[in-house]
Amino acid sequence: MAGKDASVLTISPDGPLRGSISTFGALVGSGFRRYTTYRQATIAGTFTNIVFGYVRCYVLLAVAASTLDGRPAGYDTEQLATYVWLGQGLLSVVMLWGWAELAERIRTGDVAADLLRPVPPLMAYLAADLGRAGHGMITRFVPPVLVGALCFPLRLPTRWQTVPLFLLSVLIAVVVSFGCRYLVNATAYWLHDARGPIMFWVLGAGVLGGLYFPLRLLPDWLAVTLWLGTPLPSILQTPLDVAAERDGPGLQLALVALQGCWAVALLALAALVQRRAERRLVVQGG
Description:
The protein is mostly helical. It has one domain (23-284). It has 13 helices and no strands. It has helices spanning 4-8, 16-36, 39-66, 77-94, 101-108, 111-115, 121-151, 162-186, 188-191, 195-208, 220-229, 237-244, 249-284. The longest helix has 36 residues, at 249-284. The protein starts with a helix and ends with a helix. It comes from Actinoplanes regularis. This is ABC-2 type transport system permease protein.
């Protein structure tokens, strides 16, 4: 590259912080533009999410109708419908499944090129993932929510802090999901083939993340254990509960704060794993 484009993608020694921010922003934009090229996949995926939204919504509404008070685990029918349709929209934003790019590059050896770039692989992949999530919020989140709002009674926010807290929770959820997926992919440094861990992640993330049913339907001790002991509820369950106003303002804020702790912990662990893996690559390369 030459001229202006080259200065965007390099870190200036005279202003490392400014250069890092501009480089990170450029990578976010690159991730966004990359997913704008998959138009047919976006349309097909959105349609599929809407179809499964109807199935999930009617199942949970049937569960509510079978209870004595019509409020399973404290959710009324509007909150359940909100939980389902926002969950269908967020599914592609947080990207629970379908990412094995790092594992594949490790398997083929292409990851060596990533290590030669001025931006560490963890930050480069995180920036690209944030760009992908931004594209998902526009193309994959809005249509299912609109369909749900037209066909079912959704709960509108009654507190001023719900919308900004929800958006913050979604952003943190993307980071938490990325941290989990990065660690699962990084097992390829040691296993050379990460298909087993990735499959285990696919099976567990949807169930323990709150996609198939609200985790509040589980016994209280088990739900609390999952929330405090694993990062998975922070990926979908927390932002959906915030949007549905399942809890009071104090507990809403506490859940988002717990999300933030998991995001920091996962990024720190991913950075540690990456450093250990780079040492292993040096040893393997002689």
